[in-house]
Design goal:
The protein has 292 residues and is mainly α. It has 16 helices and no strands. Helix 2 runs antiparallel to helix 3.
Length: 292
């Protein structure tokens, strides 16, 4: 009798898990087919996006939008001053910070702040370990992408940094949504595999909703899928692929159920591994800038 009850309970839990997994994916699909509703912490990133859509948007206008969110202001000033590179003049106003970093970098700061705040939200306390690992992986990928672009290519390092920051945007969003389903909360390993399978396509839709430039979206597309060996980085897609690997992305590939994933040769290529010391330095700077 006890065994039967245990089996019945297990079957019921599995059925609930499947039901909630399907319900979450169905809900996300419905939302992405209409107007995307981002968590409120993305409000500033969306307002910056809207300001940048205006071809006549001036630096003071964009700065005015950013000034409405003190946390973004603080992180933007910190990023600008850390990028001084020997310039002793300390920047204390938003306009000067944007002037030093560039408007695209200001958008990256707003997005990074939103992502950091999302993973620190009350809703994601139940996934604190997953959230912390995801954020660290994103920052390490961003650091690697920036260094690889700067040292080995003519790719814009700021584009590479942004691509690294948001390449797993769909995973952030799915983690936020999964926290609403008890059966998924109880099985974080299931959530990890669910994210691995679906975060790419979901993230692409979110990037379009945020008006991310097409060439950056293209670079993130199927970034976790195995491909032919990259022996040298020629474009942003190559940069992001190798950066993701250097940041531990092989684990994501293994969760795609595409067959056995062998160790990637890029991880032993001295052209890439030789950049790791500088990548660690940039990663530390990003942690200091974007983490509380």
């Amino acid at each position: 009798m006890t065994d039967d009850l245990t089996t019945d309970t297990a079957d019921k839990n599995n059925d609930q898990l499947k039901s909630q997994r399907f319900e979450m994916l169905e809900s996300i699909a419905a939302e992405l087919s209409g107007e995307v509703v981002f968590p409120t912490c993305f409000d500033i990133a969306i307002r910056v996006r809207n300001a940048m859509r205006d071809p006549n948007a001036s630096l003071p206008k964009i700065a005015g939008v950013i000034k409405t969110e003190p946390l973004v202001v603080a992180k933007l000033l910190r990023a600008a001053n850390s990028a001084a590179q020997g310039n002793n003049r300390k920047i204390t106003d938003v306009e000067s910070a944007i002037g030093r970093l560039g408007i695209d970098s200001a958008r990256s700061v707003a997005l990074a702040t939103a992502m950091d705040q999302l993973l620190r939200s009350r809703e994601l306390v139940v996934f604190s370990n997953l959230a912390r690992n995801l954020w660290n992986h994103s920052l390490l990928t961003a650091a690697a992408a920036r260094v690889l672009a700067q040292k080995l290519t003519r790719v814009n390092p700021d584009d590479a940094l942004l691509a690294g920051l948001i390449h797993d945007l769909g995973a952030f969003y799915m983690l936020y949504r999964a926290a609403k389903y008890p059966e998924l909360v109880a099985r974080p390993t299931t959530v990890e595999y669910l994210i691995a399978q679906w975060h790419g396509s979901i993230g692409e839709s979110l990037m379009y909703a945020l008006d991310i430039p097409e060439h950056i979206i293209e670079a993130t597309r199927e970034n976790d899928n195995p491909r032919d060996e990259v022996t040298e980085v020629r474009n942003l897609t190559d940069v992001l692929f190798v950066a993701n690997l250097l940041a531990g992305g092989l684990i994501e590939m293994e969760r795609l159920d595409l067959g056995e994933v062998k160790g990637r040769p890029e991880l032993s290529n001295p052209l890439f591994t030789g950049q790791m010391e500088e990548i660690k330095v940039v990663h530390k700077e990003l942690l200091s800038t974007f983490s509380m």
